[in-house]
Specification:
By secondary structure, the chain is α/β, with parallel strands linked by helices. Helices cover 45% and strands 11% of the residues. It is built from 18 helices and twelve strands. Helix 9 links the parallel strand 6 and strand 7. The N and C termini lie far apart (54 Å). This is L-lactate dehydrogenase (Cytochrome). GO terms for molecular function: FMN binding; L-lactate dehydrogenase (cytochrome) activity. Its EC number is 1.1.2.3.
Length: 404
């Protein structure tokens, strides 16, 4: 028979730990976010549905995005034990300079629509973290203002080729004069993909005050207050726009773009030239032969052609075709530091993350983006240690295979 007794106060007292309440609401909610998925949950609560869906969604049936996530879930790690992993090196050479972590912030459009601090907040975090930041042609802060927000940050400018070539040349000139180190040409957007969440939500840029958005605003008053009381959305590359994202893309982007336009940019741009949106090995070889210094394997986060190739599965054939002639990067579907480690082990030079930091931005502004970096950095470090690897440069295919 179990004997029971009432506990003494001296026995209870060590167990009673009163947690000091956190008065700062941003700090309080970010402290509860331990993964990127946690940040996504917070972002969904704090952001109007149409805006959250613009970030979270993909094209048509969203098959490409689901497959990207599934490909990372198929990774099987193969750890080595009895290794001294008390200290690990997470840095990586990217475009000839060391990045403190093996990823960059991807260029994202309409960033200040997600949260009013926008690109300035993101580039400041990138500067402190020692990683590159990409500014999109469709960003909502000007090339010069991003440069002044973090003068020492490594900045890449992402370019879409417009029907107006003179306007494109002007953007390249401004980026060069503002100290951007690399130009990223995106080639997977000759026309807009069918992003059905945006269509069903009736999303416009900037969001319109309709009955639906007013009702949604009642549950997201802080977001609407910030949108309406801060500077109007200013784009990196045009003064204003009122309409849908698809209308903007189809009006301004040039569907006649060919490899000759890559050669045109190679003649304009003196620094590293990256081509983003490559989805097969032959195209990777082609753009490298025409002047690209790096290639980003990307299906635009699943936001253009649905059922497009999965980048993690495509990676080996591209590495075989390109060899050491260019650096190969990868994006789409990355939701953890372990995903980044897997991509590096499979041969990628580095990764680009977009949705991950946008979830952080929506969840807590600049501090939310910093929390994204903390989470990914911690996961990368822990994954390396558990693999028995002391540097990302020591990762090989033997550390990560794809299960059938």
């Amino acid at each position: 028979m179990t004997r029971r007794q009432l506990p003494r106060w001296s026995e209870l007292r060590p167990l009673l730990r009163v947690k000091t309440p956190t008065l700062d609401p941003v700090q309080r909610r970010l402290a509860q976010a331990h993964t990127i998925d946690d940040l996504r949950t917070v972002a969904r609560r704090r952001t109007p549905r149409a805006v959250f869906d613009y970030t979270d969604g993909a094209a048509e049936q969203e098959t490409s995005l689901r497959r990207a996530h599934q490909s990372f879930s198929r990774i099987e790690f193969h750890p080595n034990v009895l290794r001294d992993v008390s200290a690990v090196d997470t840095s990586r050479s990217m475009l000839g300079s060391r990045s403190a972590l093996p990823f960059a912030f991807a260029p994202t459009g309409f960033t200040r629509m997600m949260q009013h601090e926008g690109e300035r907040a993101v580039v400041r975090v990138a500067d402190r973290a020692g990683i590159p930041f990409g500014l999109s042609t469709m960003g909502t802060t000007s090339i010069e203002d991003v440069a002044s927000a973090a003068p020492r940050a490594r900045k890449w400018f992402q370019l879409y080729v417009w029907k107006d070539r003179a306007a494109g040349e002007e953007l390249v000139r401004r980026a060069q004069e503002s100290g951007y180190e690399a130009l990223v040409l995106t080639v997977d957007t000759p026309v807009a993909g069918a992003r059905m969440r945006d269509v069903r939500n009736g999303l416009t840029i900037p969001p319109s005050l309709t009955l639906r958005t007013v009702l949604d605003g009642a549950t997201h008053p802080t977001w609407w207050f910030n949108l309406l009381t801060t500077e109007p959305l200013q784009f990196a590359s045009l003064s204003s726009w009122e309409g849908t994202v698809a209308d903007l893309i189809n009006k301004m982007f040039d569907p006649t773009i060919t490899v000759e336009d890559l050669e045109w940019l190679r003649g304009l741009w003196k620094g590293p030239l990256i081509v983003k949106g490559i989805q097969n090995a032959a195209d990777a070889r082609m753009v490298v032969d025409h002047g690209a210094d790096a290639v980003i394997l990307s299906n635009h986060g699943g936001r253009q052609l649905d059922r497009a190739p999965t980048m993690l599965e495509l990676l080996p054939s591209v590495l075989d075709r390109v060899g050491d002639d260019a650096e190969i990067y990868l994006d789409t579907g990355i939701r953890s530091g372990a995903d980044i480690v897997a991509a590096l082990a499979r041969g990628a030079r580095g990764c680009l993350v977009g949705r991950a930091f946008l979830y952080g931005l929506m969840a807590g502004g600049e501090r939310g983006v910093a929390r994204t970096v903390e989470i990914l950095s911690s996961e990368i470090t822990r994954t390396l240690q558990l693999l028995g690897v002391t540097s990302v440069d020591d990762l090989t295919e033997e550390h990560a295979t794809l299960r059938n």
